[in-house]
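Reviewers asked in the last cycle whether our approach scales beyond single polypeptides. To address this, we selected a multi-component target totalling 674 residues and predicted its structure end to end. The input consisted of the following lines:
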Amino acid sequence: MQQQQFGKRPWSFYFLATFFTLFVLFLYGPMFAIYVLSFQGPSGGLTFPMNGFSFDWFVALFGQQRTGDIRGSFGRSISLALMVLALTVIISVMAGVAFRRRFVGSTFVFYMAIASLIMPGLLISLGAPIMFQKLLGMNTNWYTTALGAQLTWTLPFGLLIMFAVFNRFNRAYEEAAYDLSATTRQTYQYVVLPILLPGIIGVALFGFTLSYDEFPRTLYTVGPRNTLPLEIWNMTTNVTSPALYALGTVTTAVSFVVITLALGSIALIQRRRLKHNLDGESAGASQIALAEADR
Amino acid sequence: MAQRGTINLVSVTKRFGETVAVDNINLTLPGGAYCCLLGPSGCGKTTILRMIAGHETPTEGQVFIDNENVTGLPPVRRGTAMMFQNYALFPHLTCLDNVAFNLKMTGVPKPQRRTRARDMLARVQMEAFSERMPAQLSGGQQQRIALARSLITNPRVLLLDEPLSALDEFLRLQMRGELRRMQRELGITFVHVTHTQPEAIALADMVVVMDQGHIEQAASARTVYAEPHTAYVARFMGGQNVLFGRVGHVAAGTVALDLEGGGRAEFQIDKAPAVGSLIYISIRRDRIHLAKPSHNEEKNSANTVAGKVRAIEYQGSWVKLTLEGVSPDDFVLNLPDSEFFAHPVKTGDVVNARWAPESVHILTGGAGQGDRPYAKGQN
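The resulting structure, written as structure tokens, was:
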């Protein structure tokens, strides 16, 4: 596209540029401050200036109990996030398949499911233990009540993503598979799900990250042992050392690794669909000639 | 016994809600023939194809293949294979795996299915591309892979849904030839859906012209082009001028028609129509000539019409002359270039066009079953 070479930029450029700068500043500024301060020297405090440089606060994080049960809560958060991921993927994909056909009451079911996106999370968190304890006689626990409460948050997202994914899916692929003798099960196994895999990884990614940093729905449903975000929240009230910042840096790193893995695998799948096989590479010249002849 | 791959549609109707896509059609497609279903978009041709394939079920009526009622059977049990518009090649599989897909689904062991898929790729001259992904192929190459993938099921009928529409002009002509060659080699029935008239007449043994869920004419390409049954077919196939008028008088096997828009046509007719009845005729563009300007007395003679030249298009070996004021349709002459340049005319000139009585073709089907008498055909 040709750029405008001459003349003044319109006023809207400066307005939007300022807006974007502020956005970036607010998004990355606080995080950047935390990351830098987590490398505070042993005698440093909670704010700038930096008083030397060390990894002491990372060591402290996993070393001692005085900072709270970081190791345990981290493990619980990861396990919970993986459970949420698995359930979100399975249920969303199956619901997405179901919603491809307009069944009786599908609109009602859809709005019922989506309603939990606007429902205040704290309400669910408050109500769930009452329901579980009084009606079912169960105690709250991170792997039961909290799991359920988090699913009310991840499933609508998963469902919406699957809607988008199936909307873009060309039904001709399915018909082609039927035409080539595939059964319904084979069609899903060998055609539909492989083609939708990038979208399904997206659902998994959402499930994991939404669960990993979920706070309001987990607060009263988690039971006696905390997840990581709740543990951090506890620490802010009684820990007054840069260990808190070190924790922030570590959790960000975990999220980053997860996102990189997910996006990386999506990119890998897309690349594989376009990749020149070694075979193809060696025969490249003759193929180009053939392609030319084809034109 | 008819040849293998004969398709019969008996009183087939397909409705989608209130819309009637296919309206009570009876049609026989001969086995081993190249058949084209031709018509504008929305005429029901793709619906017919999908009902033969088993991807749609007729609302009423039956589909027979080789006298076996296949209505309601899944595609697998019909011995048909479909080549989809834009091919629907599986994007996550290599060309080889795409072609071998049917064999994998039916449980053929891996070494055998790879061998057979490679043979099929060789057949469409794509063996060098076996490990490529579909996205890496040009449109023509994708079509060959799609063809190979369909043919590996060893079908008795191959159904092609607008197979050439995704290709550019040059490739379209090339692949058209390849489809025809492939059909001759295999000897199976090809049913090819298209909205492009030259494609249909170049390829097909049998052309089925459709409009609004009806069949207007089903006949050989030459018959459909040269002897259209209705005004609709004549306009849609192109190359024809459609005129109509009321019968003025009949004498000794000759009928005089007072044309709508002026002028009079006189021609032989086998069965004398009643005076005053409405008759549609067509005259091929290349069978019309300009009367010499000096012969002005011809103006009022039969088989001559006057019109103003609206457009002149040089086409190489002929010149396309469009006249207005002759009939509700445009009136078009294709003059040999030598004839035009011997006595050139300009845009805006009023000229007389004439034709021989034997060039008149009577459209026995009248306007056609569709209710748009003035629908313009393709130029």
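Confidence is low (pLDDT under 50) at residues 371-379 of chain B. We regard this as preliminary and will revisit it once experimental data from Aim 1 are available.
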